């Protein structure tokens, strides 16, 4: 390679190839980490939901009601059939409680 233009071409091409490979690796690593994070978040949410339901059931039993509440007056089993349905019910109750709190605050002012 005596011609500097030819040498610059090959160096530039090599730089572009190395940068492309590194960007691909970084992108795939990022997607992998994002997938792991999402899976871990779902697992934490499932564990949190189970813990909340267990505590609610224990509190209901301790209160002497004998009925384990899931959020909408249903009895719960040891394993929820549809986790998304339980989450949706909890979100609906939270929204209802927020509305009631806002109504209470606006009436007390």
TrEMBL record:
Record field: compositional bias (Low complexity): 59-71
Region of interest (Disordered), residue spans: 56-83
GO biological process assignments: thylakoid membrane organization
Protein name per its UniProtKB record: Thylakoid lumen protein
Species of the source: Mastigocoleus testarum BC008
């Amino acid at each position: 390679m005596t011609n500097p233009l030819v040498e610059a071409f090959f160096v530039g091409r090599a730089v572009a190839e190395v940068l492309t490979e590194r960007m691909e690796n970084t992108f795939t690593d990022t997607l992998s980490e994002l997938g792991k994070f999402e899976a871990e978040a779902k697992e934490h949410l499932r564990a949190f939901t189970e813990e909340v339901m267990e505590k609610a059931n224990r509190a209901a039993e301790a209160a002497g009601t004998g009925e384990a509440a899931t959020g909408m007056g249903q009895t719960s089993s040891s394993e929820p059939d549809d986790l998304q349905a339980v989450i949706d019910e909890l979100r609906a109750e939270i929204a209802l409680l927020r509305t009631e709190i806002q109504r209470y605050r606006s009436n007390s002012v």
